[in-house]
């Protein structure tokens, strides 16, 4: 797909992977909807970066765990730009709970994790699909995680939510294929950025650099992926062959080999 003059909606796009992807798409001529849940200032900064370079972008607040917000987000996109060609389900959440602390993984944590990471991705896809079909077909891309296929992750609930997203990717790909809607997922490993620095690294620069080195040393390519790496991979699915669907693309420098 040539993204010029296409309309792309990215959930969770105020920072990290979403922001990097939005910026790239804006530079390529796409109209971009930058969704955010709480970070209005950061989302507006992404929009200003795109519009300042001559592109078109709009920041829209919505919590993808709420059905009404999903409906409003898609409706606002179509009202503003007249169509919808690509949806990127990038919004995600997690709560760090050691896997052996089963009692600490409360029902509230489970429900919030599943509603944002899995149910939200479904509701967004459901709302977007008729508009993507009306535009002649397009793409839905999920930001999953290698936690979906390993026994490691920030919590058991997070791992399960991303495993569910992988299944959702494949079942939606089969269901929506006849509507010329392709559905794929990218599974990153550790992503170098503010989120990893503040959570895995505890906000300590020395500790974080040690963590990155430990991770990189366990990969054949000796590299910790960046938000830009993930954005590039998502972009390759959008702009590549129109006959790739139902695929789970691992992006971890070979860590899971």
* Uncertain residue ranges: none
Number of strands: 7
How many separate domains make up the residues? 2
Average the pLDDT over all residues and give the rounded result.
95
Strand content bin:
5-15%
The neighbouring-strand order within the major sheet is: 3-2-1-4-5-6-7
Number of helices: 8
Question: Which key terms come to mind for this protein?
Answer:
seven-stranded parallel β-sheet; 2 domains; 257 residues; Rossmann fold; 15% strand; alpha/beta
Give a written overview of the molecule.
The chain has helices spanning 16-27, 40-52, 67-81, 107-134, 156-176, 194-199, 205-217, 227-239; strands at residues 7-10, 31-36, 56-61, 86-89, 138-143, 181-188, 248-251. It starts with 6 loop residues before the first strand and ends in a 6-residue tail after the last strand. The chain has 2 domains: 7-189 and 226-251, NAD(P)-binding Rossmann-like Domain (Rossmann fold), CATH 3.40.50; 192-224, no CATH class. It is an alpha/beta fold and 257 residues long. The radius of gyration is 17 Å and the shape is globular. Helix 3 packs parallel to helix 4.
Fold topology:
Layout: E1 7-10, H1 16-27, E2 31-36, H2 40-52, E3 56-61, H3 67-81, E4 86-89, H4 107-134, E5 138-143, H5 156-176, E6 181-188, H6 194-199, H7 205-217, H8 227-239, E7 248-251
Parallel strand pairs: 1-2, 1-4, 2-3, 4-5, 5-6, 6-7
């Amino acid at each position: 797909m040539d993204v010029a003059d296409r309309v792309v909606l990215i959930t969770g796009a105020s920072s990290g992977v979403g922001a990097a992807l939005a910026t790239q798409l804006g530079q390529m001529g796409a109209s971009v909807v930058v969704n955010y849940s709480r970070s209005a200032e950061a989302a507006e900064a992404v929009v200003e970066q795109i519009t300042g370079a001559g592109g078109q972008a709009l920041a829209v607040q919505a919590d993808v765990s709420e059905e009404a917000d999903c409906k409003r987000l898609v409706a606002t996109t179509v009202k503003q730009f007249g169509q919808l060609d690509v949806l990127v389900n990038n919004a995600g959440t997690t709560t760090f709970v050691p896997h052996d602390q089963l009692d600490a993984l409360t029902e509230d944590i489970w429900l919030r994790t599943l509603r944002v990471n899995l149910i939200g991705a479904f509701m967004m896809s459901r709302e977007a699909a008729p508009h993507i079909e009306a535009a002649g077909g397009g793409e839905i891309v999920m930001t999953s995680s290698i936690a979906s296929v390993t026994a490691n992750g920030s919590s058991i609930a997070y791992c399960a939510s991303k495993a569910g997203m992988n299944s959702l990717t494949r079942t939606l790909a089969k269901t929506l294929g006849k509507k010329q809607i392709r559905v794929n997922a990218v599974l990153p490993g550790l992503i170098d950025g503010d989120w990893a620095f503040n959570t895995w690294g505890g906000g300590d620069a020395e500790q974080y650099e040690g963590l990155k080195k430990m991770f990189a040393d366990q990969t054949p390519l000796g590299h910790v992926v960046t938000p830009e790496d993930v954005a590039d991979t998502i972009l390759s699915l959008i702009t590549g062959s129109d006959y790739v669907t139902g695929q789970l693309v691992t992006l971890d420098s070979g860590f899971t080999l």
